[in-house]
Design a protein that fits this description.
The complex is a heterodimer of chains A (112) and B (111). Chain A is built from no helices and eleven strands. With 112 residues, chain A is mainly beta. The interface between A and B is medium-sized, with 25 and 29 residues.
């Protein structure tokens, strides 16, 4: 079974620039999550989708972050404009009816 | 590879010894708990889970203990191997299926 795919693996941008991350979940998984993991900390949930609807986005900084899952499969997470404190690994995860989350390898963002 | 966490609590054990990693959770209403292992440069990997109506669950070389009275979770790894070296996170599920992660513990296995 193919895992959760994310791209790009690494991205370096300057502050105030924009960046987008892409995630392809495990086939058949209805729930998709984006987490932010700052170095030295545990992952923090940014947004959770159930099919193409948003379940929880209470911790998403909506003034600069946006995410979509238009067809209920792939998802993109965008940051515009980026700040220094956005430097982190952005993890995508998916799950089926079971509670276990399967994570991708993550996209590491460095904002200079 | 780049470290997952540079300033995490660290547990150092000798190869072959048993490891115990502890976690305190915050929400007494949480009904589901998971332990994840994260190696450098990779995403978290599921190890074992436990529901709140249980106090112990065993897997292959791993055991999770849940003490709801003091809101404490532990992960026991038997006969720790070098491949067990990683950062370990506990996570709790709260309302709405939202999974919240703890701060993590780095396990270092000495050969």
């Amino acid at each position: 079974e193919a895992g959760v795919a994310q791209s790009p693996r690494y991205k370096i941008i300057e502050k105030r620039q924009s960046v987008a991350f892409w995630c392809n979940p495990i086939s058949g998984h209805a729930t998709l999550y984006w987490y932010q993991q700052i170095l030295g900390q545990g992952p923090k949930l940014l947004i959770q989708f159930q099919n193409n609807g948003v379940v929880d986005d209470s911790q998403l900084p909506k003034d600069r972050f946006s995410a979509e899952r238009l067809k209920g499969v792939d998802s993109t997470l965008k940051i515009q404009p980026a700040k220094l404190e956005d430097s982190a690994v952005y993890l995508c995860a998916s799950s089926s009816a079971r509670e276990e989350l399967f994570f991708g390898e993550g996209s590491r963002l460095t904002v200079l | 590879g780049e470290s997952v966490g540079l300033h995490l609590p660290t547990l150092s054990v000798q190869e072959g010894d048993n490891s115990i990693i502890n976690c305190a959770y915050s929400n007494s209403a949480s009904d589901y708990f998971i332990w994840y292992k994260q190696e450098s440069g990779k995403g978290p990997q599921f190890i074992i889970d436990i529901r709140s109506n249980m106090d112990k669950r065993q897997g292959q070389r791993v055991t999770v203990l849940l003490n709801k009275t003091v809101k404490h979770l532990s992960l026991q790894i038997a006969a720790t191997q070098p491949g067990d070296s990683a950062v370990y996170f506990c996570a709790e599920r709260r309302a709405g299926n939202m999974l919240t992660f703890g701060g993590g513990t780095r396990l270092m296995v000495k050969p």
